[in-house]
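Posting this for the archive.
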Amino acid sequence: MKRIAIFLAMIIIIFSLFPFSQARGLTVDIYGPATVGTNGTYEYTIVINGNFDGYGYNLFLTGSNMSGGTTEELTGLSYTTNTFKVNITFPSRPETVYIYVMGIGIVNGSPEKTTSINYIQVNVVKSVPITLTLKNTEPYEIKNISISFFLNGRFIGTSNVSSMGPNSTVNVTYNYIGTFENGVNVLSARLNTNLVKFSSGSNYTTLYFYYGTPPNYDWLWYLLAGITLFTLAIIYFYSSGKKRPGAPKWKK
């Protein structure tokens, strides 16, 4: 918390150099997942409330190692809405990331801007990438493609492809951040259209996999071998101990 306080103080000092004002009420809120997967891209919503003619924001991320994640500052400005949606990519290693947003309120005809700063904490955890190949065999472009993922019959998330060109192929990766059941798991995916297919040639695909240490069935083979040897031994001793009939009289 001490590091956060120092960082916020630095932000306030930096932006105090500009003609901003705190006279009018302004609040900024950030909505989105609190736990995300490594290398994953997630959507967050920024809502700025206040009685202003225009709204804007400055957003940036901090963390111990932002490699693979969003590092540049994101900005936005609108005179028609106070709600903004942004896509944020998180780093490739598990850590804690802070998303800082400065909301800006603008009054027409005034050189001053009212600001408010807020932040949220996001836990980045190790994810399991699930990659599937999509094929568009049609001679035209297909838009708004959605893939729904299910684990053991339970919906776990979606991935979206904005468009696919005619006769094209694309790889789609979904980063799963949950847990698996010990034993056999069933992962399935379904497309929202029949025009695009998975590599299997269908708009639905299923994968079975084992999580944990597979059971060792070698003892069954040893047991089967032991039973076989025991049975053969019984047959042998029974055959050797059985009284053989005497030679035919005509051979005497």
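The radius of gyration is 33 Å. Confidence is low (pLDDT under 50) at residues 12-23.
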